Amino acid sequence: MAQAPTLDHAEVVRSTDNNVDWERVAYLIHLSRALDELEETVLVPEKKVLYQFSARGHDLAQILLGLRLSDPRDAACGYYRSRPLLLALGVDPADVLGSSMGRAGGYSDGRDIGVVFNYPNPSGATALPMCGGVGTQYTPAAGWAQALEYRANTLGDVECRDAISVVLGGDASVATNGFWSALTIATTQDLPLLFYIEDNGYGISVPGTFQTPGANIASNLASFANLHILSGDGTKPDEAATLVDEAVQYVRTQRKPALLRLTVPRLQGHSFQDTQGYKSANVIEAEWQRDPLPRLHDHLVPAAMSESQWKAIGERAREAVDVARNEAEGRQVSDPARVTTHVFYDGELQQRGGQWSEGYSAPAPVLEPRPEGTRINMVTAIRRTLDHELAVNDRVLVFGEDVGPKGGVHAVTLGLQDKYGSDRVFDTSLSEEGIIGRAVGMALAGLMPVPEIQFRKYADPATEQINDCGTIRWRTHNRFAAPMVVRIPGGFFKCGDPWHSQTNEVQFVHAPGWKVAVPSNAEDAVGLLRTSLRGNDPVIFFEHRAMLDAAWARRPYPGDDYVLPFGKARTVRSGNDLTIVTWGAMVERCEQAAEGRSVDVIDLRTLMPWDREAVLESVTRTHRCLIVHEDIGTAGFGAEIAAVVADAAFMELDAPVSRLTMPDIPSPHHPRLMEYALPSVDDIRAKIDDLLGF
User: Fold this and answer.
1) 338-348 exposure pattern, b = at least 16 Cβ within 10 A, e = fewer
2) What does R_g of the chain's alpha carbons equal in angstroms?
3) Is the same domain home to 534 and 620?
4) What CA–CA distance (Å, rounded) separates 199 from 197?
């Protein structure tokens, strides 16, 4: 049950001196301060560091927390003011400064802001790849916590039994969707997740009263079920150490979530450019009165060390920063030619994340279908593929809204929970950000998550997590990757509407790092899904609603090891006079429209990557090109294909490249209106004849 927040800590008397290495704490806080000072007085004015966020005031408690993360399977997901935690985890100060200066190596090889960190710690707790967005760290941390429980309890991984997940956030971040989604996940699933909230009273300039009533999230959550709550002063060494120790030990031993709120002063502006003009002189003076550094001095001198020892520790830290600066400034800017690498897996295995980095080896692939039995619809084909991969790979987990006992709103997962249990096929709370964010954490922990988003439009709340996931490999310079398969039913069915009938695949094609599959039939769905589940990149897998049970899309099951490589189009019909390029539900319509005409109909099957060679070869032979898709015309993916054809095959064309798409409107509801807006067989046939007569 929830514990009321402890707001008056006069009763906190248990000393932690026996289990805190205070000399180490003193060194690390001096190190953190010296790094801040160097950046603020030298590197930022010299424009060698472009983004700088001081951790003064937050540093003491963060260091105490970092030193408590002793299990090699522990992980922490922080935010832009979490550098003291990184130092406590063992990050090299030269990597800290080199990353801040955008030099080669470090967190990202100069690809990302230096405060957006990651650390695949070889000898201790991992710092998960943070994101630049406020609140985006929470749900991946929940996913890591759930992965720990799954690995320990289902896979029998004894190394995960005592490990925990920690997420750090400022008081302003508790207003975000990510915070509340992760809180729901952790408390409903009893996950070993510690919410560590640093309350400095401001979100840049906005007071905490605008983020949560009364400006105290611990007090507001006092009645939140299944959440152990602690609250206190993060600037008092003994009190902060006690609370950090109690919070970590509770999560580690009870395997349940806790929230620790510590009040801390933000002794500098939000960032280097922030002058804090919104704070009065009295407020600033009161904050400096709470500086934890002199309080740490008074706690240790002379009780634990002499004044000269204290000064020697500070001098040693400053010397370490000087050495780190020389090394960091000696690093070059990364070769610009390398900046396009590691968008996708390119043969060099990432250090952490995904099943491949943990030794997973897929069964030998079969590249040609071996048809079995009668024709089955796409629903059955996808379900059978998921069934088989769940059976042969215990790292695969399927989850989303209604995928459990109900079997999914489209019946794709029907019976899978009965067969594999609720730890492998499970329902989630109604939060798409939570579904994708938790999948990110699971993938980083070595699992193969298969989250379902019920309809394409419902992916919109998860857009930030989707975009962040796709960039993990690139922005960490291949240190981390988060392979997963996001299943999304899209497109129209018997009727339309703006909420359940959206396509807009191009949004995900435009999100770097994601592969995008759009199968039109059961056989292709099996091959592309299996390739995705055994692969090493995140995949958006579209399941077109109109084709899930369409007679045209039915095919015999192609076998349990049949895989279909991405970027390989299929020629549905062959001809000499025109090339039609299409995908999804439009493939059937284009095939029907092409009857009686000499036309190549090309089903792309995947949009990222897409088979440019097949399209250009066909257009070079037919000298005409028509692109048909269900999405709206303006900036639809057909525009990309048209641009490539015009650029690479312009001299081969006997007619302008043409497109036939939905008009620039949402999908109408009434069937007559919907069919009027969709490219119909008659529309496509008329367009074919128009181009053939050009």
Assistant:
1) eeeebebbeee
2) 28
3) no
4) 6
Count CB-CB contacts under 10 A for residue 110: 23
Sequence-separated contacts (24+) of 205-214 with Cβ below 8 Å: 205/270, 205/274, 205/278, 206/172, 208/171, 208/172, 211/171, 211/172, 211/174, 211/175, 212/171, 212/174, 212/175
What are the catalytic residues?
500
pLDDT tens digit sequence for 305-329? 999 999 999 999 999 999 999 999 9
* Closest by CA position to 520, among listed 491, 543, 502: 543
Give the length of the chain. Answer: 694
Identity at 77, one-letter amino acid code: C
The type of residue at 600 is D
Residues 95 and 363: their CA atoms lie apart, in Å, by 39
Nearest to 492 by CA among 224, 622, 353, 672: 672
- Pick from 117, 139, 127: nearest CA to 74: 127
- Examine residue 337 and state whether it is found in any structural domain, yes or no: no
Strand partners, 571: 602
472 and 375: one domain? yes
Cα-based distances in Å from 682 to 398, 470, 660? 40, 39, 12
pLDDT digits (tens, 9 = 90+) for 343-361: 999 999 999 999 999 999 9
Q: Which residue has the tokens 């192609």?
A: 558
pLDDT of residue 208: 87
Dihedral of CA 71/73/77/83: which sign?
Answer: positive
What letter does residue 225 receive in the DSSP assignment? T
Strand, helix or coil for residue 464: helix
- What is the distance between the alpha carbons of residues 223 and 335, in angstroms, rounded to a whole number? 54
Which SS3 state, helix, strand or coil, does residue 366 take?
Answer: strand
DSSP character at residue 413: T
Is residue 348 a part of any domain in this protein? Answer: no
Classify residue 3: in a domain, yes or no: no
Q: In this model, does residue 14 exceed pLDDT 90?
A: no
Say what the pTM is: 0.94
Number of structural domains found in the chain: 3
Question: What gap in Å lies between CA 532 and CA 526, rounded to an integer?
Answer: 10
Residues 194 and 277 in one domain: yes
Task: Establish if 339 belongs to a structural domain.
Answer: no
**C-alpha distance from residue 443 to each of 148, 157, 396, 484 (Å):** 11, 16, 10, 7
Element (H, E) at 170: strand 165-170
Range of the domain at 615: 571-692
Neighbours of 18 (CB within 10 A): 6
DSSP-assigned states of every residue in 635-685: T-HHHHHHHHHHHHSGGG-SS--EEEEE-SSPPPSSHHHHHHHSPPHHHHH
